[in-house]
Amino acid sequence: METTEASFxxxxxxxxxxxxxxxMMDCKKALTExxxxxxxxxxxxxxxxxGKMEGRTDRMTGxxxxxxxxxxxxxxxxEILTETDFTARNEEFxxxxxxxxxxxFNRSAGTVEPDEAITTRIxxxxxxxxxxxxxARGEKLEGGAFGKYLHHDGKRxxxxxxxxxxxxxxxxxxxxxxxxxxPTPVAVDESGVDADLLEKIRxxxxxxxxxxxxxxxxxxxxxxxxxxxxxxxxxxxNQMYVKDPSGKTTVKSLLPxxxxxxxxLRYTVGEAAGxxx
Length: 277
Prior knowledge:
GTP Cyclohydrolase I, Chain A, domain 1; Tetrahydropterin Synthase, Chain A; alpha+beta; 19% strand; 4-stranded antiparallel sheet; Helicase, Ruva Protein, domain 3; 3 domains; 7 strands
């Protein structure tokens, strides 16, 4: 039987391993299969192992990381999920999240669906880690000015969008408030709250006051008071700023004259999938 001399060296195997993060035997097999051609061996490896990974897509992905980027009049935020916190803290996973938020930042404004470039970048990490990794959600915002905050563990983040100009530290602080405040703000102000929800609160308060024997004029005042209280506790500009120890400063009072918060986004890892960590 004739034997064919290997058309690659140990250095080639090491180079393919460094490029893919895969084991030496896998890399050697790929180079053997493709007669030492590095590019086709890499493609062959990825296709072969990606097929294996497709069978793992039903695994729970309750861990992950958020990426945020702002620059000028644009901002982007993404959430990438994986199976374990160990992988979510891995340098390659963190770098992948940063790469993807950069890709999203360069897109048009709106909700983002993963394209081929994003999917390929995620597949790189799926193959290397052996874990199910997926793109959970992402969005690009444009217009006005932005602030951002990413918690040190990468699991909670916020973006705030304003009209006008405000100090970066103030906007960061407001984003920290959005991440930390309980309850989480449901809207910037009353205009963003579901009118049906407010009517429900009003109606229930009226019924309760009426059932307790309160006069009609008092019933109305109690109902409006309940609505005001809900808005004070649940809308961003009316909440008491979490970084003020006195508890007497609203977020709205922090804003310079002429500055208006137009929108905010708050992400927590696992939230979109119905699981938070």
